[in-house]
Amino acid sequence: MRNTLLDIYNKLFSFFGPQNWWPADSAFEVIIGAILTQSVSWKNVEKAIINLKDEGILSIEGIINVQNQKLANLIRSTLYHNQKADKLKRFCLYVKEKYDSDIFKIFDKNIYELRKELLLIKGIGKETADSIILYAANKPIFVVDAYTKRIFTRLGYLKGNEDYQIVQDFFMNNLPCNTYLFNEYHALIVALGKNYCQGKNPCCDICPLKTLCSYNRSI
Fold this sequence. Notes:
It is a single chain. The chain folds into two domains: 2-20 and 143-218, Endonuclease Iii, domain 2 (Orthogonal Bundle), CATH 1.10.1670.10; 27-136, Hypothetical protein, domain 2 (Endonuclease III, domain 1, Orthogonal Bundle), CATH 1.10.340.30. It is mostly helical. It has helices at residues 2-16, 27-36, 42-54, 60-65, 68-74, 81-99, 103-106, 111-120, 126-136, 146-155, 164-172, 179-195, 214-218. The chain starts with a helix and ends with a helix.
């Protein structure tokens, strides 16, 4: 399975090229993006981040001090903006109170201690926590999203009803534990899912994985 997963990675990398994710100017911006991108496209997250930058509040203190309704309005493009405003506030307050507003202090923990702590913060789920660990803390953990489940179910390696941890273990147990590999692999999966392996009307005839795909052979 290791060789198969690496073959899939190599085909995607050759087709799409390096993705250089996460698109952000700082580790803190990665965290904000990871929280805001829940249930929404990245294009909408970019709008919200630009708004936060324009207001000069893309910082822990800036988000803590801005009024809740103003913050929610600035991130309105991300859907569930009121709830996400609360999530941003909670995260920033947590880091301020426990780590003196220094996110790199929390990053000093090992992967599993860091993950456990992030998941204790209300509003931070597994995918968000793992995105923070991989893309902001630069530690090797495989991020699983809806694209991952869809693509690897269609390829024939998942049943489609596995929970997050089972899917993550599938990758982490069968790939070299490497931050760059996990970073690019997840970003390439997103590129494939957005542009070819859509939920409806997938572009199977021009998909770079069509020769490996059980779903393609069945249609």
